Amino acid sequence: MDNPSPTPSTKPAIPAVLAGLRRGYDLSLAGAIGAVFGLYFYVELVHTQNLRTRDALAGALIGGSIGFYLNAAEAFREGAWHKLARTASWGAIAGSAGGALGLLLGEIILGGFRGGLLGRAVSWSILGLGIGVSQGLAYRSLPRLRFGLIGGGLGGFIGGFLFEALRDRLGSRYDLSQGLGMVVLGAGLGLCLALVEQVLGRVWVQVLNGRQEGRAYLLAGKRSTLGLDERADVGLFGDPSVSRRHAEIEASPSGYVIHTREDQGRTKVNGMIVSGSNPLNDGDRIELGQTILVFRRR
Fold first, then answer.
1. pLDDT recorded at residue 215
2. What is the DSSP string of the chain?
């Protein structure tokens, strides 16, 4: 007699708050590493005496490095190397352009404030806005662009404020305060980006079992692909019963709908096989092969 097929795990999901904290930790670490590398490249490579040129190059190197690492973090954790190459490349390009423009404008604003805690905070907030743009461009998503701008602005403001405070406490030891300030800037950008997504995100799915257990994926586009494909918006790796492009979730005028892209009955919503399309409501359980997700909508 054939053995019954294994039943997917139904244990409770990791709370969305904990998933958000994990993402916040990942992006904070990525942003801090990116800031350190960006500062290193600036110190080693930029020797011009022209103030504006130096500011532009500093912003490009620091912004590009932070943008690269922030946009590489998610794909690196998934092991999606093609996705990593695409998002990190776009993140580096957009971060460089935004960082250069942001730091130039920020330094002009800093001069208007004549320095000080508030002046530095506002100055670096402009830099953070420029870097935050990389989130939207890397994922080609308007909501992510909006979240990136808000998170980048907040992270830059906090980083600039702490940078100036550290400089005062360290007796104007600019090198040390600059290094610590850059770490705070990068980590603050990453943390604020994650928190803004957590607070303002309206639709997401959370994986309940398997290799991606606990991961929460923001559904920020009109169509979001789910499957084994490394270019999928929701990468479900480690489950051979999931197809490369197993299903899509679409935002329609009447709500959200899941479309199955496979014909072997391996797409289910609340235990019922999906044939073609099925509407989704908050709390619905989606089964793709042996992987279970929960659909959440505020």
1. 84
2. -PPPPPPPP-PPPPPHHHHHHHHHHHHHHHHHHHHHHHHHHHHHH-----HHHHHHHHHHHHHHHHHHHHHHHHHHHHT-HHHHHHHHHHHHHHHHHHHHHHHHHHHHHHHHHTSHHHHHHHHHHHHHHHHHHHHHHHHT-HHHHHHHHHHHHHHHHHHHHHHHHHHHHTTS-HHHHHHHHHHHHHHHHHHHHHHHHHHH--EEEEE-SSTTTT-EEE--SSEEEEES-TT-SEE-TT-TTS-TT-EEEEEETTEEEEEE--SSS-EEETTEEPSSEEEE-TT-EEEETTEEEEEEE-
Quote the percentage of the chain above a pLDDT of 70.
91
In tens, the pLDDT along 5-28 reads: 444 444 444 556 676 778 888 899
141, pLDDT greater than 80: no
* Listed range (56-65, 138-147, 187-196, 239-248) with the worst mean pLDDT: 138-147
Q: Output 272-279 pairs: Cβ under 8 A, ≥24 positions apart.
A: 274/247, 279/254, 279/255
